[in-house]
Amino acid sequence: MADEVVQYEVDGAIARVTMNRPEYGNAQNSAMTYALDDAFYRAAADDDVTVVVLAGAGKHFSAGHDIGTPGRDIDTSFDRRAGLWWDHVGKLGGESRYAREQEVYLGMCRRWRELPKPVIAQVHGACIAGGLMLAWVCDLIIAADDAFFADPVVRMGIPGVEYFAHPWVMGPRQAKEFLFLGERISAARAYELGMINRVVPRERLAEEVTTVASKISAMPRLGLALTKKAVNQAEDAMGLQVGMDSVFGLHHLAHAHNAEVGADSLAGQDARSMRDARQRDEQRRGQLTADGRSGEDVVDGPREHERPAASSGGGS
Ligand code: ZN
Known about the structure:
Elements: E1 6-11, E2 14-19, H1 30-45, E3 51-56, H2 93-113, E4 119-123, E5 126-128, H3 130-136, E6 140-144, E7 148-150, H4 166-170, H5 172-181, E8 185-186, H6 187-192, E9 198-200, H7 205-216, H8 221-237, H9 240-261, H10 271-284
Parallel strand pairs: 2-3, 3-4, 4-6, 5-7, 6-9
Antiparallel strand pairs: 1-2, 7-8
The protein binds zinc ion (ZN).
């Protein structure tokens, strides 16, 4: 269905999962999170599917977590699947925030990383903050030459997004630069860092992903599953999971500090204020393009005072 937040289609051995909130840069609300989970579950269970592709409809892969669109559903209850944490709705402060983010951000990403079939992220346009988490849980990342990547949440006083894979997907020193600056990096730069597998011209992206997926699909299902598990286990042995758990505590210290001393757990920031801050920074650095714009506005959410009242948890 064209109006579903996630579209699912099967083409031979390939399942295509497409995020479908193009008017908001595919900003990820909980409705999308659970629709993604449905799609991944379906792909895992279908014996005819060997490889899964995750893509975004419209101009961008994903602008990140929904921190301000009209569809922001932070105070809506969903049936939880990633773990046994209780519903965050109706809880206060850190309890609400922690229960929510364990489930919909960290827990879901970990669950998807363990999908026992190869998953390819097909990335074009923006892949920002929460969008990185979606790309990083995939096994391969194939990007268009117009793709760009950033985790700007240090501006909120927060040490990176909840699925803290940064030092493992690009190396510790590069992760520090990526986070300290919070700047967008190009697909070419992401390739140099080893964060993505291939960069192709925008018009060839879908074709390239299909070619790679088709080649992979010729391999035996169990061989692929065990190979994926082998590499994931090696990453875990390199500290990915325990590192992520320890940083999740720092992440929640930051949310709590923000809520304690400021407007909210996001330091009063939303999509629009983050964009404005980035543009001010770029202006200071003289990075404006010839026409005076500093790049596309990925998501244009309501300002802080327009947010739905009584949002209990943090969104980033
Ligand atoms: Zn958070």
